[in-house]
Amino acid sequence: MKSYLQFLATLLLVSHFSFGQDVFKKIDSLIHDNYKKNPDVGISVGFIKNNEGFYTAYGKLSKESQIEINKNSIFEIASITKIITTNLIAQAAIEHRLKLDDYIDNYLPAIFVLQKELKNKIKISDLASHQSGLPDIDFGKLIALNPQQPISNVTEKTLSDMINDCTALKDYGQYRYSTIGITLLGQILEKVYGKSYEAVLREKILQPLQMTHTLTKDFKVEDRTTGYNPDGGMQEFFEWNITAPAGLIKSNASDMIAYLKAVLNVQTPVGKAALITEKIYYKDEKREMGLATNIVTDDKNTLYQKSGDSMGQSSILCYNRAQNWGIIILLNQRNSKMRQNLLNVIYDTVLQ
């Protein structure tokens, strides 16, 4: 009987793997078709189904390189960083270091002094779901100052002055995408753990998941892709600074699949925290938001998504917890339309 049960278990495992392979062959075909139409845009894709990872990639590390992109090639994941930051916030809540409905007042470093009009107004969950009403940085002005490194002009003083000078929340409770809100979550993590955001990230996510090729301050590695703006001009990777929690992690398809495996496994700390980030914290006629997580629901499925765009790269992450799959798409050009269209066609023709 024991050997028969083992045989059934093996047969089921092989069946699941074969199903995942068949699905990914279709995904690979769609990715290849896109690359043939857009040969200047390098791409790396990872897919997970029933805990099995599959990978494909097309293009070179740069226009001058002869090295092929693969699952280990480094990209900017940009604002996908935000869901990693909110996962850390959810882990802190599970550890009783904070409550998501706590006001931010007592969780900010001493350099932040809220005006009386803002005291006991903004919750941690408001920051994480883009409804705090706080002012945000003006990317247009920053790009004009430094097109290659626009966020270099955002410092701790810039951030504290912006928050400390704020006397009104013009659209509190309404959705407005916010880099500053997620940046402040990084400041909160630093205070509750008594260490840098980078150190918390490594301790809670990178080291436990063995994400050894996910990079922070030091990303000048040989397998790094080159980024290109929409006009094809070369674009530098963003340097690490105070806004890191909102968009400065660099990674690859292999490590991001490791992250998705943990997200889909509710026995892991990352998976338990992900369940919290998937709860609806904001809803209107256009969207549902978890903690930095876009929730997309149709008649059959609920998808959890986060996209990212730096000055020179685009990315998107999506997963379906009920069907136990996830996907990461990384492009070496800033092209938000392409990465969204790719996800849409993959979902509509293969995964739905």
From TrEMBL:
Sequence similarity: Belongs to the beta-lactamase family.
Keyword Lyase (UniProt): no
UniProt keyword terms in alphabetical order: Signal
Residue ranges annotated for the Beta-lactamase-related domain, each copy included: 41-338
InterPro entries: Beta-lactam-related, Beta-lactam/transpept-like, Beta-lactamase-like_AB/R
Signal peptide: 1-20
Keyword Signal carried by entry: yes
SUPFAM superfamilies: beta-lactamase/transpeptidase-like
Protein name: CubicO group peptidase, beta-lactamase class C family
Record Pfam families: Beta-lactamase
